[in-house]
Amino acid sequence: MSCLRPRILALHALFWGLVSLRVFGAALLSDEKAAVAVTKAMTAPCWQLEEFVVAKECSACEGFHSKSIPACSQTGFVETINCTKSNREEFKSCRSAKMEEHLFWKFEGATLALTVVFAIVVVVRQRSLDRQASDKVRRQIECI
Fold first, then answer.
1. Which of 16, 40, 55, 120 has CB 3.0 to 4.6 Å from 80, enough for a Cys bridge?
2. 3-state secondary structure of 30
3. With contact defined as beta carbons under 8 Å apart, do 79 and 91 qualify?
4. Which keywords, in A-to-Z order, does the entry hold (predicted)?
């Protein structure tokens, strides 16, 4: 009998309405995501969708190319790609060996500098602790 009260019926209707809205809403969102994925596939570069051949190895972007080719803005280096199926020529951002070597040596230098700084900190701290220990022993001997 308590299930037939209007307030409980309204709460049940609201609850099941929200549940069904969530289920159907998720289905609609997945349909929208699929449509967006198809649209992205149409606008995606050909080298993401099909086989390709590197026509020109990774090289630095020159002044004009860095403004006109969007791939140049990511790393400053670009390689020319020929897609096999669509036979299109596109540009792909890349990382050059020179740039990688430069970043490696910067990292090594920073690591070495931090090693030296922390070694100095350890030596200073050890000397301070040694001084405190010898002062403590000296005070204990003086008290005797």
1. 55
2. helix
3. yes
4. Cell cycle, Cell division, Cytoplasm, Cytoskeleton, Membrane, Mitochondrion, Mitosis, Signal, Transmembrane, Transmembrane helix
Residue 28 has a CB neighbour count (10 Å cut-off) of 10
Q: Which residues of the chain have pLDDT under 70?
A: 1-4, 8-9, 11-12, 14, 16-42, 65
Q: Locate tokens 């050059």: which residue? A: 96
- pLDDT tens-place string over residues 35-61: 555 455 457 788 788 888 888 888 888
CB 65 within 8 A of CB 72: yes
Q: Cα separation of 32 and 77, whole Å?
A: 35
Contact in structure between 71 and 105 (CB atoms under 8 Å): no
* Encoded tokens for 128: 């301070």
pLDDT tens track for 81-90 = 888 888 888 8
Strands 89-93 and 77-83: what pairing? antiparallel
Q: Tell the residue number behind the tokens 């609609």, with chain if given.
A: 28
Determine how many CB atoms are found less than 10 A away from the CB of residue 71.
Answer: 20
Report d(CA 49, CA 44) in Å as an integer: 8
